[in-house]
């Protein structure tokens, strides 16, 4: 469920509460600015977001050569350049 749907649900719940027993309630804000699903925030860094999966595969050199039309050393260099150096430069 996205934050927009959660906000709509909270707003509806607050409307019901105001009409059924909490008439003197003062609604200050629907959001407490904890909706950081798409914002850079420390809580995302600490707790993470979504799910994580780790997968490994051993691909024989002949498959890399014949199917991927590359070689192991080139793929290793690409991985270092893109996933290690590039990600570090982008701070991601």
TrEMBL record:
Gene3D superfamilies xrefs: 3-hydroxy-3-methylglutaryl-coenzyme A Reductase, Chain A, domain 2, Hydroxymethylglutaryl-CoA reductase, class I/II, NAD/NADP-binding domain
A molecular function (GO) term: hydroxymethylglutaryl-CoA reductase (NADPH) activity
Coiled-coil residue windows: none
Sorted UniProt keywords: Oxidoreductase
Biological processes, Gene Ontology terms: coenzyme A metabolic process; ergosterol biosynthetic process; isoprenoid biosynthetic process
Keyword Oxidoreductase among UniProt keywords: yes
GO-annotated cellular components: endoplasmic reticulum membrane; peroxisomal membrane
One Pfam family of this chain: HMG-CoA_red
Entry's family note: Belongs to the HMG-CoA reductase family.
Name the record gives this protein: Hydroxymethylglutaryl-CoA reductase (NADPH)
Origin species: Verticillium longisporum
Organism lineage: Eukaryota, Fungi, Dikarya, Ascomycota, Pezizomycotina
């Amino acid at each position: 469920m996205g934050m927009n749907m959660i906000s709509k649900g909270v707003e509806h719940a607050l409307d019901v509460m105001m009409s059924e027993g909490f008439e003197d309630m003062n609604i200050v804000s629907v959001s407490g600015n904890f909706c950081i699903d798409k914002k850079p925030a420390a809580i995302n860094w600490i707790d993470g977001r979504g799910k994580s999966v780790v997968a490994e595969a051993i691909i024989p050199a002949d498959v890399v050569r014949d199917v991927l039309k590359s070689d192991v050393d080139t793929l290793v260099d690409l991985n270092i350049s893109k996933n290690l150096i590039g990600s570090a430069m982008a701070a991601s």
